[in-house]
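Morning. Coffee machine broken again, so started the prediction first thing and wrote up yesterday's gels while waiting. Chain of 126 residues, entered below exactly as on the submission form.
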Amino acid sequence: QVQLVESGGGSVQAGGSLRLSCTASGATESTYWMGWFRQTPGKEREGVAAISGAGKIRAADSFEGCLTASRDNAKNTLFLQMNNLKHEDTAVYYCAATRNRGGYYSMPPARFFDSWGQGTQVTVSA
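Came back before lunch.
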């Protein structure tokens, strides 16, 4: 199984920016899809964006803020650039990966992924 470690979280004021990173190690040759999810207390884990091994990008429609995922396959690293952050973007952000090569034309659900990082906290003050 792939091991995932997120970094780059922190506290910012509304309108600020952050860049999250997720570094994968272990059986990275088995990884195809990688994605970002976020979760707040009492809510389900919410999909943000995902990228396939072929470079296909799938982004969820229902979230505020400018969140853009990118991937460096050579370095086994996934990024999430977050600009114009809003208070509603406050959450723990999780990196996920799977060896599943299934095709998705929208953001894959959390159940699709089987490797998860521990998460990194993002706090946006109003």
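The chain has a mean pLDDT of 92. Going to sketch it on the whiteboard this afternoon.
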